[in-house]
Amino acid sequence: MIDLSCDYNVGCAPELMAALAAANGTQHATYGFDACSARAKEKIRAAVGNADADVFFLVGGTQTNATVLAAILRPWEGVISAASGHIAVHESGAVEATGHKVLTLEADEFGRLAPGTLRAYLRSFYADPTYTHMAQPGAVYLSHPTELGGLYTAAMLREIRALCDEYGLRLFLDGARLAYALASPETDVDLPLLGGLCDVFYIGGTKCGALCGEAVVFREKQPHFFPAHKQRGALLAKGFLLGVQFDALFTDDLYLRLGKRGAESAAALREGLRALGVPFSPESASNQQFPVLTAEQLEKLREKISFEIWQSYPDGSALVRLCTSWRTTADDVAAVLEALK
Amino acid sequence: MIDLSCDYNVGCAPELMAALAAANGTQHATYGFDACSARAKEKIRAAVGNADADVFFLVGGTQTNATVLAAILRPWEGVISAASGHIAVHESGAVEATGHKVLTLEADEFGRLAPGTLRAYLRSFYADPTYTHMAQPGAVYLSHPTELGGLYTAAMLREIRALCDEYGLRLFLDGARLAYALASPETDVDLPLLGGLCDVFYIGGTKCGALCGEAVVFREKQPHFFPAHKQRGALLAKGFLLGVQFDALFTDDLYLRLGKRGAESAAALREGLRALGVPFSPESASNQQFPVLTAEQLEKLREKISFEIWQSYPDGSALVRLCTSWRTTADDVAAVLEALK
Amino acid sequence: MIDLSCDYNVGCAPELMAALAAANGTQHATYGFDACSARAKEKIRAAVGNADADVFFLVGGTQTNATVLAAILRPWEGVISAASGHIAVHESGAVEATGHKVLTLEADEFGRLAPGTLRAYLRSFYADPTYTHMAQPGAVYLSHPTELGGLYTAAMLREIRALCDEYGLRLFLDGARLAYALASPETDVDLPLLGGLCDVFYIGGTKCGALCGEAVVFREKQPHFFPAHKQRGALLAKGFLLGVQFDALFTDDLYLRLGKRGAESAAALREGLRALGVPFSPESASNQQFPVLTAEQLEKLREKISFEIWQSYPDGSALVRLCTSWRTTADDVAAVLEALK
Amino acid sequence: MIDLSCDYNVGCAPELMAALAAANGTQHATYGFDACSARAKEKIRAAVGNADADVFFLVGGTQTNATVLAAILRPWEGVISAASGHIAVHESGAVEATGHKVLTLEADEFGRLAPGTLRAYLRSFYADPTYTHMAQPGAVYLSHPTELGGLYTAAMLREIRALCDEYGLRLFLDGARLAYALASPETDVDLPLLGGLCDVFYIGGTKCGALCGEAVVFREKQPHFFPAHKQRGALLAKGFLLGVQFDALFTDDLYLRLGKRGAESAAALREGLRALGVPFSPESASNQQFPVLTAEQLEKLREKISFEIWQSYPDGSALVRLCTSWRTTADDVAAVLEALK
Q1: What is the model's pLDDT at position A226?
Q2: Which residue of C has its CA nearest to A135?
Q3: Residue whose C-alpha is closest to residue C276's, from C200, C340, C218, C208
Q4: Is the pLDDT assigned to residue A341 strictly greater than 90?
């Protein structure tokens, strides 16, 4: 059975397990002050091209989103997000639980918050004479890739950054699946660009080859994020557990190599499905593919691979998600395409 | 200048000012334990037809909405509201500031949350396999009248109540302008119905003839709402200030009589405008009327009355709000209609 | 029966009731944008001696404390308070409900936070190697008078301000009973001093002659306090209700004159009790007096005046609170002293 | 260098690392619905002797404390804790950040909340006529062992449980170092007792041999804790990471065996130090020992072992913490004692 159901249902890349095993016998400083974490942070600063970047390792995505937003928003502010954004839908109200409204805007077909949509909202918000009676926009939340595997272009991100500057908003980018975005054959977005544009973003580990862990990168020093993330239960006593993993991920470009496997197998899958005349909704450029399969195709696939039904239609067809990862091989892709022939 | 701009820009009904002045020299028990408050609560229990109802006097609408919802929701729950609901738009994120998501559904043309919309949402929510990753629906928020002056029918409220029972939701009704709803010539909703159907609702004072104050009516005894509303800064040290007012409002049906003035003048206004061929959007049955006026009509009106532009159109016409209140007279209405002829 | 039980159990000073009645017939801008509020703010700025001060009118004390602290604290910060401070004891956890810890320090015998205590705490806090694992001190909360009627001296306030500057703390002073402090025969603290030293403080109305209302004075412009206090339910739709009262209070020094009545009658009471050999605990300099009365004295007093027992002792004696106010007369004081002879 | 500085500065027990490595290649259900987690929960239910217990795996201690308390407290409630309790001091205000006050009581010399102290507080709380103006007690927080290594007796826990029943409080026990408590030669508290007395407690993994992870055990089914802990960022996408570890910990009594190593080496250390005439403050019965060492003894120790200074005294002596763990050997203890001779 080939697994295309999800990118967080196996452990970690063998390199990380080896590093964890190697680090297991020895003593480490606690709460992230260990040498592995220091090394990992240094490597991430280099990869981002910002020697001043402040890096923290948190455990998971929802925790990171809520903790970062709670730290950068002022009490009367909300965060702007695509209506389909993870914080708006699938985090059980975690952002609201910290006291902040998620201000949702219609996403484009790729799940992205289009700069034009953002601009129109901001203009109309401040044009409304009652705007001081509303939750004030304080930050913009993007995910890259989006929930639908969509990728922002560098131009879109620059335009959003310009709007943030114009309206006094902080820019936060959720990179839970960032490896697959960075490694997409179709992207012009890289780590230094994100490090330069975002006030804060995170480099996802959990879905990109780690056991757990997300590396939060602030553009500027954060004198208070230590108690801020301790307060949200996001500070690991054994922080070296995360440092060891990110140290390995940022050694010899492992992070990008893992991302490449997921992104390239997704691209091959897309090309193959397209050749078979399969439509997409949408046709994304990262590791999540959303083809619409006929009843017959679904039946064929079910025997060979595990995947998720996104939406079922009355005629038996369905929009499905085929999710590749750092573990997906060329053989897996070939087998899927073969099954559909 | 006739004032149809809003229903909270003058003081209180003369009866209330007289009562306040009369009560001013004497000593009262504090924090709502005074005799006036006790009397007012007794009268409200009688009006609602529920001897077990627990009544509290709070100061204003946003405070009441946030305080009540924070008390009845569990941490992981959100509150369902029409997308145009006051808590969703115009309370600066007050509900979110207490940790709860506002779950917005499309309203009908009158700003109401249609039972069918609610049912469809609840069914689809629990049919979604990821529903435990979302904020859980915990309560339904209605306002009666709605932001657009719309009124629920008794049948709609009963259907919503049945859905609440089916799905374990509490029902909360915001009655900031309740007097104008109860006194509408077109309603079949009265206080005993609300007292029977709602877990909690409030009888608005601020917009219905009081200086300030909202009477929160719980269907059942609330052993903990005292510290709960103290904690939100919603407990007035001089609670008798509210007790005196509600005592007056519920003496000799003053509350309904004040409502009637607003509702009847609105009905007369509507009839007159309709006779002049003026369209509405929507045509509401309470004290807020939303006619669409031509540029010429707007110009005529501006000299005689103050009102709010809701939306301007390119051709110079506009959707306006004409808001009557307990102070609006038949002469006012006649003058408006005369001006438009 | 002479009432020395409390300073918030009657309505407002006649001047305020007259002003409210006079303002009752006319139309006012809403949400605090009315002319009365503007006038009141201007007068308060003049009284404080700071043309840049930003003034807001809120309704009650707990609301004001929680709303202001939530606006000036960052999420990871707590507020330092005397352990006997109102926010630490009698606000049902209102500050914590906004997400912030109240960091309590031992008060001196007058309920004051002594500068030396504050300095020792701050030094030891930052000397503790685990300090980043604790709630960070973000503000200092004082009340003047304190819960025990104690008054800070100008020197103490200056020393506390210097500590705030040294440690990056904001200084917030709760002036619920400020009139009685400002009018104390023994104080060297006046409004300009408070306006110069405090980042924010409030001039209490509720306990000093108003029906309700507290005037919050920020040393600097607050571009975001409008949505911040709307969000906490602390923005009154009919803000003119508060503006009218503070306009009257700051006309012809009414606020100080009302304070003087309470403070002078308390001073006379104290002197008289002292002459009778009655001990105090503590001997405060504002409108709350805390004498320890024998069983016999208690019996005598009970027939003539209402007051609160603070603590009962096994021998039948008790520490009581005699609370004067703007309504207390020289005759009242004479009657109390006469009763005890 | 022998490490007695802390019990969370190395990875996990070899058995757990082996289990993690073995589980690494295979696919697991996500969000804790995997077979390992199911197995681990079953074993924990058996160990606790409660087939109805509801078990959840969270990541760390502060996260667990805040998440559980936020789920079991009502908004107006606080949690009672020893003043030296971890939630009161070293969690950066995490509980307050969820809106709840920590109500601190004086601990006994072992850091325990004595039943008598609790009873006296509850009696005096409800005897205070202003109690409804305070944060209401909603739960009791204990840690076992305490911050000072102290252990509750079964009798104390039963007495506290009885008080909880009498006053409507939930009982929550923090077992971050539970293994060392359960394995103490001096305890009469075991898992079934905790499972029967506590509404909820947790079995600490991080400090007791796991890489990370705490097993939260509720006495009754919790239909809503899934969204509740998702909302606090405490739900791990790869929940099997925790399931695998707790499955190993609860196989062949590994958890107790690991605890025994820490507890027995601590007991041997204590006995040896006592024989050398070293005083303790306090003399605890679990894996943390708090001897007071002379300047000379400190110097000798520093060459051989790493440990933490708890408090330094002017004469050069110091109260230190010697913290054993599942890794401490009899040889380690012998070396420490030898060094001090």
Answers
A1: 98
A2: C227
A3: C340
A4: no
Q: How far apart are CA B49 and CA B42, in angstroms?
A: 10
Strand partners, C319: C292, C311
Segment A113-138, tens digit of pLDDT: 999 999 999 999 999 999 999 999 99
E-strand ranges in chain C read 2-3, 54-58, 77-82, 102-105, 136-143, 170-174, 200-204, 214-218, 288-289, 292-293, 305-306, 308-312, 318-323
The C-alpha of A37 sits at a distance from chain B's nearest C-alpha, in angstroms, of 31
Say if CB C292 and CB C318 are below 8 A apart.
Answer: yes
CA torsion A104-A108-A112-A113 (nearest 10°) is: -50
Q: Chain B: list its partners (3+ Cβ pairs within 8 Å).
A: A, C, D
- The whole-angstrom separation of Cα B14 and Cα B266 is 21
Q: Which two tokens stand for residue A60?
A: 């998971």
Measured CA distances, C40 to C37, C228, D33, D115 (Å): 5, 21, 62, 55
Assigned token pair, D39: 């197995």
CB atoms within 10 A of CB A54: 17
Helix (H/G/I), strand (E/B), else coil: A175: coil
DSSP, res C168? T
Enumerate residues 6+ apart whose C-beta is below 8 A from B323. Answer: B4, B5, B6, B7, B287, B288, B289, B307, B308
**Which residue from A minimizes the CA distance to D212?**
A238
Q: Which of B59, B97, B207 sits opposite C231 (nearest CB)?
A: B97
Residue D291 gets which letter from DSSP?
A: B
For residue C308, CA distances in Å to A276, C293, C312, C335, C339 come to: 87, 12, 11, 17, 17
Q: Which residues of chain B have pLDDT under 70?
A: none
Q: CA-based Rg of chain B, rounded to a whole angstrom?
A: 20
Asked whether the bond before D291 is cis by omega within 30 degrees of 0, the reply is: no
Q: Answer yes or no: do C71 and A70 touch at CB < 8 A.
A: no
Q: Which two tokens stand for residue A336?
A: 């899927």
If you measure CA to CA, which chain D residue comes closest to A8? D238
User: CB–CB of C234 and B233 under 8 A?
Assistant: yes
Closest CA to C206 of C112, C114, C311, C325: C325
Q: Is the Cβ pair C233, B23 closer than 8 Å?
A: no
CA–CA dist D281, D312 (Å, integer): 13
Peptide bond between residue D282 and the one before it cis (omega within 30 degrees of 0): yes
Is it the case that residue D250 has pLDDT exceeding 90?
yes
Q: Mark B172-211 as b/e (b = at least 16 C-beta within 10 Å).
A: bbbbbbbbbbbbbeebebebebbbebbbbbbbbbbbbbbb
Residues in Cβ contact with C288 at an 8 Å cutoff, skipping those fewer than 6 apart: C145, C148, C149, C177, C266, C321, C322, C323, C324
Give, for B293, the enclosing helix (H) or strand (E). Answer: strand B292-293
How many Å apart are CA D16 and CA D247, to the nearest integer? Answer: 9
Q: Which of C8, C230, C232 sits opposite B30 (nearest CB)?
A: C8
Write out pLDDT tens, residues A271-295. 999 999 999 999 999 999 999 999 9
- Burial label for D296, CB within 10 Å (0-12, 13-18, 19+), is exposed
What ipTM did this prediction achieve? 0.97
Cα–Cα distances in Å, from B299 out to A129, B283, B296, C240? Answer: 21, 22, 5, 30
Q: Which residues of B touch C28 (CB under 8 A)?
A: 9-10
Count of helix runs (H) and strand runs (E) in chain B: 14, 13
Does residue D196 surpass a pLDDT of 90? Answer: yes
Instruction: Quote the tokens at residue B44.
Output: 């409200």
Gap between the Cα atoms of D192 and D48, Å rounded:
4
pLDDT tens for B258-299 read 999 999 999 999 999 999 999 999 999 999 999 999 999 999
Report chain A's mean pLDDT, rounded to a whole number: 97
Q: What is the largest CA-CA distance in chain C?
A: 63
